[in-house]
Amino acid sequence: MTTNLAARPVTTIQLTDLSSLRRMLIAAAIDKTYCKLLLEAPERAVKDGFGGEDFPMTEFALEAVSNIRAKNLVDFIRLINEKIPIL
Length: 87
Description:
Oligomer: single chain
Largest sheet: none
Shape: globular
Number of domains: 1
Strand content: under 5%
Helix content: 55-70%
Number of helices: 5
Structural class: mainly alpha
Order of helices and strands: HHHHH
Low-confidence stretches: none
C-alpha cells in the first residue's frame, strides 16, 4: 500500500519559532511567575513575553503552544516536543 504524500499538509517550523520556544522555556524555568502563566494561559504567556523580551512565532507554533495543557514545566516540554518534534 502506498501513501499519497501530496495529500498530507506540510507545516514548516521556522528558526524564529525554535529560538522563541527555547527562550520562552528558559524564562519559565528561571521564573516561577512566568512558568505559572505559561502553564495556565500559554497563548497569553507567548504574547506578553517575559522581561521585555518578545517571543515571535508563526501561527503554527503559537497554536501548538496555546493548545498545551500541562501541570508542570516538564510535562509542557514533553507535550510541545510531541507537537513540534524538532525540539
